[in-house]
Specification:
Length: 177
């Protein structure tokens, strides 16, 4: 998907190939396992709350690695196509999970990426004592995350494996750069 141009014409703007960070399934799995390893010294955690949809895959990997059986979701919408929009909570965390974990203590919140921090602020308000972990972090959202694996620049677009397909990529020089 391409980002909308500054004039909001609806036409996709070309992305700077130097600012695209493609992540393969293998790399994402390795990074998610590295996140689990880093979290072993932080827990124990009674439950995982994953931020859908991006947090679903890393939450499954982290849950397996840490042996966490109670997995809940908070469903948040913060993108329309690829432009940021107002953050909307579509589904709250189940009250039983919040109560069981004492308002979030003992809860691990997982997402794939913290970008501007808008989503993280909303989720932290629901679970103020939880530990927030992401696989990737951008500088604007980084202060809201307790644990992450890789930081990328704010203007980098991450192509996650579930958003891409296998297609031929021309060499950079032949692509007009």
């Amino acid at each position: 998907m391409a980002e909308l141009d500054a004039g909001q014409s609806g036409k996709p703007a070309a992305r700077d190939p130097a600012k695209i960070f493609p992540v393969s399934w293998d790399q994402f799995h390795r990074d998610s396992r590295a996140l689990a390893w880093r979290l072993t010294g932080v827990g124990p955690f009674e439950a995982i709350v994953c931020i859908t949809r991006g947090g679903l895959v890393p939450a499954a990997i982290v849950a397996r690695e840490l042996g966490i059986k109670l997995i809940e979701t908070i469903c948040v919408s913060s993108y329309t196509h690829t432009a940021h929009s107002e953050v909307k909570v579509i589904k709250e965390v189940a009250p039983a999970v919040i109560a069981r974990a004492g308002g979030g203590a003992g809860v691990l919140i997982i997402d794939d990426l913290v970008d501007t921090g808008q989503t993280a602020r909303v989720v932290r308000a629901a679970l103020p004592h939880a530990h927030l972990a992401t696989v990737y972090a951008k500088p604007m959202g980084r202060p809201l995350v307790d644990t992450f694996i890789t930081e990328v620049s704010q203007d980098t677009w991450i192509d996650f494996p579930w958003d891409t397909g296998l297609v031929f990529q021309p060499p950079i020089r032949e692509a007009g750069l």
